[in-house]
# Entry
Amino acid sequence: MPSLLPEQVQQINQLVRRCGQQARQMATEEFQVYEKGVNDYVTNVDRTLDQLLTERLTQLFPGDGLISEENADSWETIHLRDRRLWLIDPLDGTDDFIHRKPHYSVMVGAMADYQPCAGWVYAPEFDQMYFGGEDVGLFQIDSNRAPTPLIPKTPALPAPDFCPILIGYKDQKRYGEAIVKQVPAAKFDSIGSFGLKVLQVIQGHAGLYLYLNGRVKLWDTVGPVALAQAAGLVCCDLAGNALRFSPDAIDIPTLAHQQPIIIGWPAYVNELRSRLETAVALA
# Structure
């Protein structure tokens, strides 16, 4: 697969920020909310941004495949192994967006040969962009300034009185008590967007992010995992197996991961993974 050119990266930066700024504006107005599944919601904002991102990325990369959350017909593209695949999540953290909370994002990810290779996470309410990948580096943009390197920050090592873990609200409710029995120092925190949780780990605010409820889809993970890997984080399941993104490792009708997910600093993963595996098995 050809590497991304600097001008292509810049065009994606501009596109994602423009869509995020549009989402921020639409959040101040009346918008429509639809239920597409049990406790799974979508808005007309998701659909508007999905269309804009799809149209522009198709123009920029006409030979690549593209999968978008709001176009189920595009999900069959997962079988095109010989192409670079783009994954679009127009609003990651839709619940936060609906409830006027700030931790939602616009995300784009790319994978080649079923491996994440680049990602973009833009937080409209903070006007902050994070992007990078294996051939791109790791960068952040504040407002509309020039990109600057995003320097990963290693948190303090886990200790008897210190062990910050990011975990979703549903997972904490189901597994939190069992995790604390295995990791007494665990201190839980959470924000809406999957991508912004991963950025919290990259920036050293938590040692790892744990996702267990089996509903996360490829468009949620490809971009953030590309950033995590570029930052030197471990991305694996509870058994220590690397995360997989190929058709045999996901639920094809939904493109949901079949593996539980750990994204964290090596010291945290090495110290906690087996204890987290035990906690989940006993919960």
User: Anything to note?
Assistant: The domain at 163-282 is CATH 3.40.190.80 (D-Maltodextrin-Binding Protein; domain 2).
